């Protein structure tokens, strides 16, 4: 293996291991396998540790290398490296000019703590510029958690709908996790709408995303991928418990709420009820199971989010359904 390639690998491993927890045995095992795969790996890593001023890492590496040679289990310790003045130029020269900036990414993310973002029911779109330059727009009744990790940028969509304009970073892909669906992207504009725990819609304005259907295992403590799809410009995918569906819905509809409108192009009552509820004091509800059986109305309409109540009052004139108001909810019932 060329010396420059070994140095690049060592630099990547050093940057990665600064963010690996002590009890992450899987990552420590991967690191140990890399160390033992070639005699040149350990010296290159020790040199990298010295450049970054992590002298304890060098001592720890010596012990770890010895354990690898003996075929023993290495002691798993972790310590964050210390960035010293002048180091960046040295590392950039060592790794070929571009790796220095890539190595800084895991170091920079330490200044970006995990944050909770929420937008209340009935509120207009809320725009957030994330530290990496990506743009996150929250719809009404939406709650997310943003995490910056060593190998990815993660947004957990707990409820509601959000739109994303992602800055490309091949070293750390952008991931949106809504339990039922997991969306991975390098750079694009797309929206994720969590209608329920079992129904998530992904709409791509432009770019390319990978959507994976996730299924709970071990009582919900672990989620595994069961299948995936690749989406590009203008495509819309619904991920449900039964798999993926391609609704006849323009991708542009998924972004209308950013301008204070909701667009329904053949929406089921269930889908419409979820979106309307984000702007009303009482929840809007539809009978369960109406969304796929084809026996209930499909709604085509445009409504301003500030005018939901008036829209509900006129809805029976648009479709064969009844709007019934109760103390607890507004019900949309097929006639």
Automatic annotation (TrEMBL):
<feature type="transmembrane region" description="Helical">
    <location>
        <begin position="82"/>
        <end position="104"/>
    </location>
</feature>
<protein>
    <submittedName>
        <fullName>FecR family protein</fullName>
    </submittedName>
</protein>
<feature type="domain" description="FecR protein">
    <location>
        <begin position="129"/>
        <end position="210"/>
    </location>
</feature>
<keyword id="KW-1133">Transmembrane helix</keyword>
<dbReference type="InterPro" id="IPR032623">
    <property type="entry name" value="FecR_N"/>
</dbReference>
<dbReference type="Pfam" id="PF04773">
    <property type="entry name" value="FecR"/>
</dbReference>
<dbReference type="InterPro" id="IPR006860">
    <property type="entry name" value="FecR"/>
</dbReference>
<dbReference type="Pfam" id="PF16220">
    <property type="entry name" value="DUF4880"/>
</dbReference>
<keyword id="KW-0812">Transmembrane</keyword>
<dbReference type="GO" id="GO:0016989">
    <property type="term" value="F:sigma factor antagonist activity"/>
</dbReference>
<keyword id="KW-0472">Membrane</keyword>
<dbReference type="InterPro" id="IPR012373">
    <property type="entry name" value="Ferrdict_sens_TM"/>
</dbReference>
<feature type="domain" description="FecR N-terminal">
    <location>
        <begin position="8"/>
        <end position="49"/>
    </location>
</feature>
